[in-house]
Structures are given as C-alpha cells and as structure tokens.
Amino acid sequence: MPPQGEKKDATMTLQEEQTQLLKEDETTTTTTKNGYGSANKTKKEQTEKTSSSHKSWLLPFYFNVFFACASFSIVMPSLSPYLHRMKAPLSFLSYVVSAYAVGEMIGSLLFGYYYEWSVKNLPLGVGPKSSMLGCIIVGMVGSLGYVWADELSSPQMVLWARFIQGLWTGGQQTIEQSYLSAAVSSEERTEYTATLSTFAVLGFVTGPSFGALFSNVNVALAGGR
C-alpha cells in the first residue's frame, strides 16, 4: 500500500495535468478566433503573389487571341477575290465560309476534350502546354495550306485550309478560357476575361487595316507567282 503522501501527490499531479490541458484548449480556441483574420490575410497575400505571376502568361494569351481574330478579319474581305482568281464559282464562297464555322465548332469540342483529359492524366503543367502547342501547329498547317492553294489554283484546298484554321481558332478559344478560369481567383476572373475579350474585339476591328497595309506587297514563295 503506497504512502498517503505519494497518493496525494499523484492526485495533485493529475489535476494539474487536466488544468494544463484545459488552458491549452482555451489558448488554441482563442488563437483560432483571433487568427482568423491573419489566416485570411495570409491567404490574400498568397493570392496577390500568385496574381503577380500571371503576367508571365497573360501577355502571350492576349496577343495570341488578338492575332487569331485579326487573321479572321484579314481573310474574310479577301476570300472572294482569292477564290475568283482560281476561277471558282461564286457559290463556292458560301461553302468555304461555312467550313470555317464548322471547324470552329469541332475544334472547340476536340481541343476542349483533350484539354480536360490532359489536365487530369498528364503531369502538372503539361496538359495546358501540349493543348496550346497542338492547337498552334494545327493553325500553322491550315495557314500554309491556305497560302499554297493559290500556287496550286485549288479552291478545294482553300476549303480544307479554312476548315483547319477553324479547328485552330475554336480550340484556342476553348483552351485559353478554360485555363484562365482555373488559373486566376474568382475575384480576378471577370477582369481578365474582359481583357481577353477586349483583345479579341481589337483583333476583329484592326484586322482589315493590316490587310490594307500588306495588300500591295508582292510575295513570291519558292519561285511561285
């Protein structure tokens, strides 16, 4: 049987431990309540820090969508005379214009599906990059086909080239808007989406002026006419 003094000391030690635990719980609760604003502040600082890094990819996005829309408004006024010099009937113009619109619709679906799949299954950062690079390559193929159609005097090649260019612009818009919505905070989303749309509108508006600027430039490719 333990001495009475030791039993009393053990009881006091247990009470002290319980008291200490209660004090720690109160301190934790108080810190959590008082630190709520600090946590929000830290989160806000991290968001602002992340927001500042957006400049590294936002500018290429803006210029990309600007020139994509500018290319559309450059091609459209010149499409009819371009087909005319290939001796294509006027009715063929409607098919070429429709091919671009159909390409945009299909490109949005295809590249949107690939973007979603790549983000889930590929390493971090590879999905958006591969989606955009693939989209740009498709656009280059369509643009080269459009140029060489004149060398071959092939209206059918113009049709397919415009379809491929439609795949490019439709996919590009889907990728950029999807990435933008995921990469920025909800507070910034409206601002950056509006800026992206502004560059798109500027491309549509200023595109014909680029066409007028280069209309008198005579370019021969690989010894062609």
Key structural traits:
single chain; 225 residues; mainly alpha; 0% strand
Give a structural overview.
The radius of gyration is 31 Å and the shape is globular. Helix 5 runs antiparallel to helix 6 (about 155-185). The chain has helices at about 5-35, 35-50, 55-85, 90-120, 125-150, 155-185, 185-215. It is built from seven helices and no strands. Helices cover about 85% and strands about 0% of the residues.
* String of helices and strands: HHHHHHH
As a whole number of angstroms, the C-alpha radius of gyration is 31 Å
Distance between the termini: 114 Å
Quaternary class: single chain
**Helical/strand content category:** mainly alpha
Helix share of residues?
A: over 70%
- Total count of strands: 0
Strand residue percentage? under 5%
Gross morphology is globular
Profile the largest sheet: none
The stretches of 5 or more residues where confidence is low (pLDDT under 50) are 4-12, 27-54
Secondary structure blueprint with pairings:
Blueprint: H1 4-34, H2 36-52, H3 55-84, H4 92-121, H5 126-152, H6 155-183, H7 186-214
Helix pairs in contact: 3-6, 3-7, 4-5, 4-6, 5-6
